[in-house]
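In response to reviewer comment 3 from the previous cycle, which asked for concrete evidence that the modeling workflow produces usable outputs, we include below a single protein chain processed end to end. The sequence was submitted unchanged, and the resulting structure tokens are shown without manual editing.
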Amino acid sequence: MATADKINALIEKINKGGYELTIEKPKRQRSLNANSYCWVLCDKIASKINSTKEEVYRNVIHDVGIFEIVPVMDKGVERWISNWGHNGIGWIAEDMGKSDQEGYTNVCNYYGSSVYDSAEMARLIDEIVIEAKELDIETLPPAELSRLQIEWGIKEVKAVKKVKPEFDQTEWPGRKDGETVSEWHHRMREKINRLLR
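The workflow returned the following structure tokens.
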């Protein structure tokens, strides 16, 4: 099938409904080296503390990862937490107790690093490096870390606790053009709450 035919077929699908097309400039993604380094250090830490690399990763996500607190209808909290966790290893949701809104519970939702940009991933790795050093695990020399930081597109990496960033992620299903992640979550939360009523 020729390219023009493929484009016309795609346009026809969009016009029939149920599809949304968004065209945006790609944002700089973290390097494969950053992801690999994250998992190597998580594995070394896990070996030292008799845990798993997945548990180490989840703990670091919980300590310095990106999160958002959202009110969820009381009767949908367990389902919300379960479904959030199905996004991946680092996608953690936890009940934070009653919301100010009657009949709602606040749920803290941590994003897995699969949606982190370069600076967010560098912050995560910086925390993993700190933990590794505390356990006397060899990490990359400072010059090599600096090289990777330049590769990641940042000048300085600092561990930051509990940051709620505003970041743009274009891969959320049903996300409208120009809609922020917070707006998307709010709209999806409303949709889920309507379905639970």
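Strands lie at 67-73, 92-98, 104-110. We consider this sufficient to address the reviewer's concern, and the full set will be provided in the supplementary archive.
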